[in-house]
Design brief:
The structure holds two protein chains of two kinds.
Chain A lengths: L2 H11 L11 E9 L2 E10 L2 E5 L8 E6 H8 L5 H6 L4 E4 L1 H8 L14 H6 L4 H10 L4
Parallel strand pairs in A: 1-4
Antiparallel strand pairs in A: 1-2, 2-3, 4-5
Chain B lengths: L5 E5 L2 E5 L14 E4 L2 E4 L1 E6 L2 E12 L2 E8 L10 E9 L3 E9 L5 E10 L17 E6 L4 E7 L2 E9 L4 E3 L2 E8 L4 E11 L16 H18 L2 E4 L2 H16 L1 E3 L7 E3 L9 E2 H11 L5 H12 L19 E2 L3 H4 L14 H16 L2 H6 L1 H12 L46 E2 H20 L4 H21 L1 E2 L4 E2 L2 E2 L5 E2 L5 H8 L7 H8 L32 H13 L3 H15 L32 H4 L1 H10 L1 E4 L2 E4 L9 E9 L2 E8 L8 E2 L5
Antiparallel strand pairs in B: 1-2, 2-3, 3-4, 5-6, 5-10, 6-7, 7-8, 8-9, 9-16, 10-15, 11-12, 12-13, 13-16, 14-15, 17-29, 18-19, 20-21, 22-25, 23-24, 25-26, 27-28, 28-31, 29-30
Helix pairs in contact in B: 3-4, 3-6, 3-16, 4-6, 6-8, 6-9, 8-9, 9-10, 9-11, 11-13, 13-14, 13-16, 14-16
Classes of the chains: A alpha+beta, B alpha+beta.
């Protein structure tokens, strides 16, 4: 399995909390490689991320890039905003969805928690806690 | 900035030229045509029969439009012009210039009109030294256009110059021949397009590709709409009237379109260096403008929430939940040579984001936005205690992880030498500046209200209030400088008080973290001779080691700083002191035709009969433009109370009468009136006028 497949598989199983529940829409990624195009669809609905290879209807946003660039993004080696400015990524439709998607990408390898270990122990990063809080909140 | 410079702008597009309308390369001022933080023209020079022109006059028609009246030759040789040239330019989705040549003679005349054009495609960060471009420039001469193209790998920016008449294009520009009848005129429309796409792709900007005429009409209509929606001010003070008018136009000009949502805008920070989205500047400007144009706050909150930090990234000083500092689109951001894509190196934007959201709801009643932004606001509140608390001592502090081109000081006083001990020495890192703690306290108190009233989470509200109370007690113990009777500028890495007397203490009043029995000491300092210059409160008291009246953050007077200080003084009941600051600022504004600059020198008013502008200050600057608005709010004592607007004026002596009509808010539109006298007037609730 390639890095792209692994990324999407893991993404489909993630409980996010990173994308607010009111954000709804589908992004289609057209990933070019070896004169082929792989299409992946990512749908945001009520704070949950759905991943599929096939989709009914038009996506709200289409992101076109090559597979190498995309893999760079999914491993934190390539910054998505920089790639857009370098014309390596082309998008149509709702840019907002693509910006929310960028929250799901990892930071660059080797990045640091700014706090020394002593302080970090006082308050460990509570991403899981944040996710649970978002998921477990009563509906309004 | 130099008065010989003419600037017109439309959000992310602007052109800076000399008074003839020409652009010549300059290392000190960013002259040229800019879009997306990139220079698209660095040479733009008009001549007639080989002669440069000189300006008789310049009209700033609108912020996006200027008209130059020119005649050939140098001023010294000027006798009686036989021809003249009107150069009218507009900036919008493209840059357009209409050249009109007028023949004042009885004879027809044939002229050669030449435009020299060129571009270095400099990133705004490299203006001062455009030597080492990593890409290459190609010039393509077509029959009907000149194309200047910059390419570096896949990065591509292009300038296309065309004209609506037959012209001869060459690599250095274009030449036209004009036959002008006696007392007749000749007109040519020159069109310059800036392109940031490659192949068949769409441009990354939503507002390009309009026809020139459409842009102009559309923008005129938009300015009309903006001004017609603004509350109307009637007052005795001519200075205040001028400053208010100037402010509303400058805020219109600085509206920066955002790429995600066509048709809405946030305040950009300032022309020419800061035409970009800045977390702190956009938040504070939106806060100042809330009683007048709450739409700015709405857009600012949305875009900053959308772009909030989500990961750890050392280069960008990014952490989950953090609100950005600066977002740029130039080559240096594209190739990650500068971290602005976006850069998160500021410790104040995150708590200030929460402050603005709460204040926005208090004015507008827009509960929907508070609910939409719940997750991102919780993430911001969490950042305060998590990544913001670098030292684990319960205070927000900062220390950059990007040691190459990250900011050393990640607070509003962000120059490298801004934070010093009383003796002028520099503390180590991390640094916890005092105003950050005030903002954090305010964010928690306001977050508690949002959690209780809109997020259905009273437990979280209680928790935030408890934390805020503990922070306040801790802060009043740890930051108080006994021998000076004020709060320290910061704590250093060992928890030592960085004991300078600075304007930051005024922000503490604004945030409400000050114990009431200490507030009189702060008020006395702020309007005492060490801090108050007569034109405003200095960033640093004049007897401190690092004080310099022309030091960017160590002695100058910043209008926005003064607007928050005055609001803080009023919050603690020091209305007279607040009024003195308001009056000084409004007095100062008259020397800049109503447009307060970014900063002016800290010299005493008796020394300089007018306020001396800081040398390379940006103008217009968004939070300086916003200053008269917050001062008006403070003087009139405008405060939302439930569904009503309370008006509790305390005007400084000499201010006369102030009347504001059609203040927008959750009450519909209401009016506020005040008459100048020192004593506070009885509070009253305005009459609803919907």
């Amino acid at each position: 399995m390639g890095a792209t497949e692994a990324f999407f598989e893991e993404l489909g199983q993630r409980e996010t909390g990173e994308v607010p529940s009111y954000v709804t829409g589908t992004i289609r990624f057209d990933l070019h490689h070896d004169e082929e195009v792989d299409a992946w669809n990512v749908t945001f609905k009520r704070g949950i991320v759905f991943v599929s290879r096939h989709i009914c209807g038009e996506p709200d946003c289409v992101v076109i890039t090559d597979r190498g660039t995309f893999e760079g993004m999914t491993t934190g080696r390539i910054n998505a905003a920089g790639a857009v400015l370098r014309n390596e990524i082309v998008f149509t439709g709702q840019l907002t969805l693509f910006l929310y998607f960028q929250r799901l990408l990892p930071g660059p390898p080797g990045s640091h928690d700014p706090r020394p270990p002593r302080v970090r122990e006082l308050r460990p990063p509570a991403v899981a806690e944040l996710r649970t809080a978002a998921a477990g909140r009563p509906n309004r | 900035m130099n008065e010989d410079i003419v600037k017109i702008l439309d959000g992310n597009n602007f052109i800076v030229s000399d008074r003839r309308g020409d652009v010549d390369p300059s290392p000190s001022v960013p002259t040229g045509l800019f879009s997306l933080d990139t220079r698209f023209l660095s040479l733009w020079r008009l001549s007639v029969d080989g002669q440069r022109l000189h300006a008789l006059s310049v009209d700033d028609l609108h912020y996006f439009e200027a008209r130059f009246f020119l005649v050939p030759g140098e001023p010294t040789h000027y006798v009686d012009a036989k021809i003249s040239v009107i150069r009218q330019r507009t900036i919008g989705g493209s840059f357009d210039e209409r050249l009109t040549v007028l023949n004042h003679q009885e004879e027809p005349v044939d002229l050669t009109i030449r435009i020299d054009a060129g571009c270095d495609f400099a990133d705004i960060f490299e203006i001062k030294d455009v030597q080492h471009k990593k890409g290459h420039i190609t010039t393509i001469v077509n029959e009907d256009r000149l194309r200047l193209i910059y390419e570096r790998q896949t990065f591509r920016r292009e300038t296309v110059i065309s004209v609506d008449r037959p012209a001869q294009f060459d690599e250095g520009g274009l030449t036209l021949t004009a036959h002008v009848e006696p007392h007749g005129d000749w007109v040519a429309e020159v069109h310059v397009e800036t392109i940031a796409r490659s192949g068949g792709a769409k441009d990354v900007r939503p507002n390009v590709h309009h026809m020139p005429g459409e842009i102009q009409q559309g923008m005129e209509a938009e300015v009309e709409r903006w001004l017609s929606r603004a509350p109307i001010l009637r007052c005795d003070s001519e200075q205040l009237d001028m400053a208010y008018g100037r402010t509303m136009v400058d805020l219109a000009a600085l509206r920066f379109p955002i790429l995600t949502t066509p048709g809405v805008a946030v305040p950009a920070a300032g022309l020419p260096w800061f035409m970009a989205l800045f977390g702190r500047d956009s938040i504070i400007t939106s806060y100042q403008a809330l009683p007048f144009t709450p739409e700015l706050a709405n857009t600012t909150l949305r875009i900053l929430a959308l772009l909030r930090g989500a990961k750890l990234d050392d280069f960008r000083d990014e952490e989950p939940g953090k609100i950005l500092h600066e977002n740029r689109f130039g080559e240096s951001a594209a190739f990650e040579e500068q971290p602005h894509s976006p850069y998160y190196g500021t410790a104040d934007a995150t708590p200030l984001f929460v402050v603005l959201l709460d204040e926005y709801e208090r004015w507008t009643g827009d509960a929907e936005l508070v609910r939409e932004l719940e997750d991102d606001t919780r993430a911001a509140l969490r950042w305060i205690d998590e990544y913001g608390d670098l030292m684990g001592n319960g205070y927000i502090s900062y220390k950059r992880r990007n040691n190459v081109n990250g900011l050393e000081n990640q607070c509003w006083k962000d120059s490298w030498d801004a934070i010093t001990f009383r003796d002028g020495t520099l503390p180590g890192f991390p640094r916890a500046t005092c105003e950050l703690q005030g903002y954090a306290y305010d964010a928690k108190m306001r977050g508690a209200r949002l959690a209780r009233e809109f997020w259905n989470d009273p437990g979280y509200a209680d928790q935030l209030e408890t934390e805020a109370g503990a922070l306040r007690r801790r802060f009043n113990r740890d930051f108080w400088v006994e021998d000076g009777e004020y709060y320290a500028l910061a704590l250093d890495q060992d928890g030592r008080r960085v004991d300078s007397l600075s304007s930051n203490i005024g922000h503490l009043l604004w945030s409400g973290i000050v114990e009431p029995d200490r507030a009189p000491h702060l008020a006395a300092h702020l309007i005492g001779p060490r801090m108050f210059s007569g034109w405003g409160v200095r960033t640093l008291a004049e007897d401190q080691g690092a004080y310099n009246p022309v030091g960017y953050h160590v002695g100058t007077v910043w209008p926005f700083d003064n607007s928050l200080i005055a609001a803080g003084l009023a919050r603690y009941g020091f209305r007279e002191e607040a009024g003195r600051i308001a009056l000084a600022m409004i007095d100062a504004s008259q020397y800049f035709e109503g447009r307060l600059p970014e900063a002016f020198a800290g010299y005493h008013r008796s020394l300089t009969k007018y306020p001396v502008e800081y040398p390379t200050a940006c103008s217009p600057q968004a939070w300086s433009a916003g200053t008269p608005l917050l001062l008006l709010r403070t003087m009139l004592g405008l405060e939302p109370y439930g569904e009503h607007l309370v008006v509790e004026p305390a005007l400084p002596e000499g201010m006369g009468r102030i009347e504001l009509f059609d203040l927008p808010g959750r009450w519909g539109r209401v009016d506020a009136f005040a008459r100048g006298r020192l004593r506070e007037q009885a509070p009253r609730t305005s009459i609803r006028r919907t």
